[in-house]
Amino acid sequence: MSLHTQYLESFLRSQFYMLRMDGPLPLPHRHYIAIMKLVKTGENNWSLPELVHAVVLLAHYHALASFVFGSGINPERDPEISNGFRLIPVNNFCVCDLANDNNIENASLTGSNFGIVDSLSELEALMERMKRLQEEREDEEASQEEMTTRFEKEKKESLFVVSGDTFHSFPHSDFEDDMIITSDVSRYIEDPGFGYEDFARRGEEHLPTFRAQDYTWENHGFSLVNRLYSDIGHLLDEKFRMVYNLTYNTMATHEDVDTTMLRRALFNYVHCMFGIRYDDYDYGEVNQLLERSLKVYIKTVTCYPERTTKRMYDSYWRQFKHSEKVHVNLLLMEARMQAELLYALRAITRHLT
């Protein structure tokens, strides 16, 4: 995160407030929830402020897991090392280089030349698609009916985007170590099968849709959170806006590039996977801008972060700098958190009414 200092400051402010400042939950409860990422009330009755505080903590750490694993900060088992674990290197650099201020910006350009020509052509093709979509948008806007159809198509297709461990282009051997790590902690889990499930089953004709206009973060979620858990709404809103608008106007070696379209596609695709639709967005842009390998990466990082591997990280946008891919992970993390908050806060709102 230190590669994006403006965002890092916002992130640390909100996390510190959740864990250390005045709030409905006692300090030990906050850390327990953060560690377990699971609330079981038992015989205890939770007040609404305590519930909201817990929901914010859960959403925060669920999303943070996506960033941690997606950025390669997870240990993998290695039989050649005495303690059995090693840090995953990203583009020939260990993640510890971040802390040591080593230069990793151009790591993807200074490594092996394998695939550089292909990745350069992929970059140029992506920029050409962005240019064409912008021109088409200016010439003629799609009708509401057409945009609804495109969303439903993208939503259904997202159910068939498999996570990394079942994607045919990644050999099973790349994931064997991850499965070993999972089995090591299973003894501490009451329900080993508990985890992410798609919001709808494959083959269903009418998939549920969460219309963002009916319950938005700006008009509904923000005010509810701030009312029941003072000031956290402002900190979260600052963080969401920061990552959504963060840009350096670059794409790999290209400068003065408007990346708004690309950032919005990434954010909205995560919400689409959770069935959230924005009426004013043309989801045809998602298919044009996000390649298949990137969609697999997004679904794995967002829904099954522990399955993420370096091969998946390297498989998309190969000419992009490491800092730009970290930027992608920040977008995915905040989109994931906002999606979870929208569902949870809408349920609380319904309970109150």
From TrEMBL:
Keywords from UniProt, A to Z, are:
Coiled coil, Cytoplasm
Do you know which InterPro entries this protein is assigned to?
AhpD-like, Sestrin
Record bears the keyword Membrane? no
- Pfam families hit by this protein: PA26
Task: Provide a Gene Ontology MF annotation, just one.
Answer: L-leucine binding
Keyword RNA-binding in the entry? The reply is no
Record's subcellular location: Cytoplasm
Q: Which GO terms describe its cellular component?
A: cytoplasm; nucleus
- Among the record's GO biological process terms, what is one? negative regulation of TORC1 signaling
User: Which residue stretches, if any, does this entry annotate as coiled coil?
Assistant: 116-150
For this protein, what reaction is catalysed?
A: a hydroperoxide + L-cysteinyl-[protein] = S-hydroxy-L-cysteinyl-[protein] + an alcohol
Q: Which PANTHER family match?
A: P53 REGULATED PA26 NUCLEAR PROTEIN SESTRIN, SESTRIN-3
- Family of this protein: Belongs to the sestrin family.
What is the protein's name according to its record?
Sestrin 3
UniProt organism field: Bos indicus x Bos taurus (Hybrid cattle)
